[in-house]
Specification:
Blueprint: H1 5-30, H2 38-47, H3 55-83, H4 88-109, H5 120-146, H6 164-171
Length: about 170
C-alpha cells in the first residue's frame, strides 16, 4: 500500500503546530511580560489589526496557524526524498527556523502594524516555538511516513531461535 505523503505530511505539520501552540500559550500565560505569540502573529495577518484580540479572533487565528503548520508539514514531507532522512531532527529544526526568519523578514519589509518593533522576549519565545515545531514536525514525519525508526540496539536483536538448517539436521 502506497503511503499518502500529502496527508501524512499535513498531519505531521498539524501535530507540530498543536504542540507549538500549547507551549506558546503556556509560556504566554506564565510570563508576566508582553509578548507576541505565534497566534498573535497570525491574528494580525488574518484580521489586519494589532493586538488586543477578542477570544473568537484568537480561536480563528489558532485554527489558521495550525492549518498553516499543516501546509508546512506537507512541504517538509515532500522535501524528505531530496534532503534524505539522516539527521531528520536537525533538518526539521533548520526548516522551522528558516520559516520563522522568513515570517519576520516579510513582516519587517511590509512594515506590518503590530509586529514591529519586536521585543527580545518575543523573539526568544518565537525561536523556542519554532524549535518545538521543528522537532515535533521531524518526529511526526518520521513516525507517520517512515514508521518507527530503530534507534536502540535492543530493537535490532535477532530472534532467540536456532536457524532452520540445524533443526532439520536434528530431525534426521
Amino acid at each position: 500500500m502506497a503511503k499518502d505523503i500529502f496527508s501524512r505530511g499535513f498531519l505531521a505539520g498539524i501535530s507540530g503546530g498543536i504542540v507549538m501552540h500549547a507551549c506558546g500559550l503556556l509560556l504566554g500565560a506564565v510570563l508576566p511580560i508582553p509578548i507576541l505569540r505565534y497566534v498573535d502573529w497570525m491574528a494580525i495577518m488574518v484580521f489586519a489589526h494589532p493586538p488586543a484580540f477578542e477570544l473568537i479572533e484568537t480561536i480563528i487565528a489558532t485554527i489558521a496557524n495550525v492549518f498553516f503548520c499543516g501546509v508546512l508539514g506537507i512541504v517538509f514531507a515532500y522535501m524528505m526524498p531530496l534532503i534524505k532522512r539522516e539527521k531528520i531532527y536537525l533538518k526539521g529544526w533548520v526548516f522551522s527556523l528558516v520559516v520563522w526568519i522568513g515570517a519576520y523578514t516579510i513582516t519587517t519589509i511590509l512594515k506590518v502594524d503590530g509586529t514591529m518593533p519586536t521585543s527580545v522576549e518575543t523573539t526568544i519565545l518565537n525561536i523556542s516555538g519554532a524549535t518545538v515545531y521543528g522537532f515535533t514536525l521531524a518526529y511526526a514525519t518520521n513516525k507517520l511516513i517512515y514508521g518507527e525508526m530503530k534507534s536502540s540496539p535492543v530493537t535490532n536483536l535477532a530472534p532467540a531461535m536456532k536457524p532452520m538448517e540445524d533443526r532439520e539436521e536434528k530431525e534426521k
